[in-house]
Amino acid sequence: MIKFDTSALLDAFKQTTALITEVVGEPTLRAAGFAGAAVIRDEAKRNAMAHQRTGTLARSIVVKRLVEESDGKRQAYLVTVRGGKSNAGGDAFYWRFLEFGTAHSPAYPFLRPAYESKKQAAVDAMTRTLAQKIKERLGGQ
Fold first, then answer.
1. What are phi and psi of 81, to 5 degrees?
2. Which of 33, 48, 88, 91 has the highest Cβ tally under 10 A?
3. Which Pfam families does the protein's record reference (predicted)?
4. What is the pLDDT of residues 27-50, one digit of tens each?
């Protein structure tokens, strides 16, 4: 008969789980989430520049953290267009007309294609940031 004492394994598992929970805290998740959203934001800005001359729309594309949907275990970000007059140099109220079109003009989407073309790059950026932050928190181990 073979006997196994799994108490040491269970203790090691509990310690590792506690360390991971401590290392992958809210600041780490925020950094990783923002890194992914920034990739999509940058692509949306490039797409927007193809449809306008002034740059107001591109300067108005921002990343917002959705506080009401974020907590210590989950972070939610939104790539959107800032509304109203702002430091971006104007009001890009017309972004909806470009993105979705109107009854009299076709759509020239810039947000949806940015997401579709860069979603894997965003995941890669989040993975790199998460790995980097974990390494920093563990002291480069």
1. -110, 125
2. 48
3. HK97-gp10_like
4. 888 999 999 999 999 999 999 998
Enter the pTM of the model.
Answer: 0.78
| SS3 label, residue 32 | helix
H-only helix segments in 50-94 = 56-60
Tell me the chain's radius of gyration from C-alpha atoms. Answer: 22
**In whole angstroms, how far apart are CA 108 and each of 62, 64, 133?**
19, 23, 38
Return all residues near 17 (Cβ < 8 A) that are at least 6 apart: none
- Structure tokens that stand for 12 in this block: 């090691």
Q: Which amino acid, residue 91? A: D
**Residue 37 in tokens:** 């959203």
